[in-house]
Design goal:
Elements (H helix, E strand, L loop, with lengths): L4 E5 L4 H12 L3 E6 L14 E4 L5 H11 L3 E4 L6 H6 L1 H21 L4 E7 L21 H20 L2 E7 L1 E3 L15 H9 L5 E5 L11 E2 L1 E3 H17 L2 E6 L5 E2 H12 L4 E5 L8 E2 L4 H7 L8 H14 L12
Parallel strand pairs: 1-2, 1-4, 2-3, 4-5, 5-6, 6-11, 7-10, 8-13, 9-14
Antiparallel strand pairs: 9-12
The structure holds nicotinamide-adenine-dinucleotide.
Length: 333
């Protein structure tokens, strides 16, 4: 059987590295392109070819795609901080939209047949009911706007240039997969932040807003295990053998509030810590919980690791084994 070549752009990052590891496990020939701005060289599978580069550099990404000649390109590389995107939308449009143009142009120039793009639930506004694949698209922050712009770009590029694509709208990625875990600096994701606090590496955890229209007044999010997200990418590759495109949510269907996450961390670690209530942050929707009916029906995707305490346990285990993340401490790969 022909070996399938894949290029994982952003494959040194959190979700990209877990997907790359699973692609290697499934026998794909994996190459990774990453500028290591938020990614980690230690997270790249040993058998993968690594190309250091920045998507800003259109000659570099074009040369790498020409050399690797991938059948499929995965596009994980982006800036993804809602707060920063509100303060500096120029940066977000340049990094997320401008860089995607460079990547897709290079894909078209080199005859790439399939592209899989990491989008986000942030393309939707907050709702009291679960978000479906057909819910209204109305981002509440410029990060979400840049992701939606790339989704639309894929639609028009496909109609002009004919590649196949999958847009996967993740809800909140979390958890760890074996030796691969979440290590962002600065960390902005709730579960690692609360775990770091429980482990005494932070003095306190801040809750941004306790007056939202939710049962306990704190924001509600849908937490999806990173290994489940990676599985969806592998299923999307197969789906695109027969179909021209798919856009779908990847959520677990369950929502947990900030306070529930804090409680789960206390339960898993057995540690208590200081919790500080602060004002709301600009751009944070109150509730984002997703149904993933299209992913279930079309891809056969069913998230397997949705219980909050199980998710927190995998993240906690990884953090205990990697006390300073990828770049220090013991237990590193
Ligand atoms: N983490 C989540 O909960 C979540 C939720 C929804 C969507 N997403 C999307 O999923 C994708 C991956 O998220 P993540 O949490 O793994 O992020 P991450 O920061 O861990 O990974 C991004 C990777 O892309 C690389 N990168 C960034 N800009 C680059 C550039 N210009 N050129 C080359 N490489 C570059 C980084 O070094 C990093 O390795 C992002 O597109 C993000 O918007 C993430």
């Amino acid at each position: 059987m022909k070996t399938i070549r894949v290029l994982v752009v952003g494959g040194a990052g959190y979700i990209g590295s877990v997907t790359a590891a699973k692609l290697v496990e499934q026998g794909y020939q994996v190459s990774i392109f990453d500028n290591l701005s938020t990614g980690h060289i230690q997270a790249i599978p040993q058998t993968a070819a690594f190309y250091l580069g920045d998507l800003k550099d259109s000659d570099r990404i074009n040369a790498v795609i020409a050399e690797v000649a991938p059948d499929i390109v995965f596009h994980f590389a982006a800036l993804a901080e809602v707060g920063e995107s509100m303060r500096n939308p120029t940066l977000y449009y340049r990094e997320n939209v401008g860089n995607s143009i460079n990547l897709f142009e290079a894909c078209v120039a080199n005859g790439v047949k399939k592209i899989i793009f990491s989008s986000t639930c942030t393309v939707y506004p907050a709702t009291q009911t679960a978000i479906t694949d057909e819910s209204t698209l109305l981002p509440q922050n410029s990060y979400g706007e840049t992701k939606l712009a790339v989704e639309k770009m894929l639609h028009w590029f496909q109609s002009a240039y004919g590649f196949r694509y999958a847009v996967l709208r993740y809800f909140n990625a979390c958890g760890a997969y074996g030796v691969l875990g979440e290590d962002h600096t600065p960390e902005s994701h709730l579960i690692p932040l609360v775990l770091q606090t429980a482990l005494g590496r932070r003095s306190h955890i801040e809750i941004y807003g306790t007056d939202y229209d939710t049962d306990d007044g704190t924001c509600i999010r849908d937490y999806v295990h990173v290994a489940d997200l990676a599985d969806a990418h592998l299923l999307a590759v197969q789906y695109l053998d027969q179909h021209s495109n798919i856009t779908c949510n990847l959520g677990s269907g369950s929502g947990y509030s900030v306070r529930e996450v804090i409680d789960a961390v206390i339960q898993v670690t057995g540690n208590h810590f200081q919790v500080v209530e602060s004002a709301r942050r600009k751009g944070d929707p109150s509730r984002l919980v997703g149904q993933s009916i299209t992913a279930q029906r079309e891809l056969g995707w069913i998230p397997k690791r949705s219980k909050l305490t199980e998710i927190v346990s995998t993240a906690y285990e990884w953090m205990c084994q990697h006390p300073s993340g990828y770049t220090g401490g013991n237990g590193n790969i």
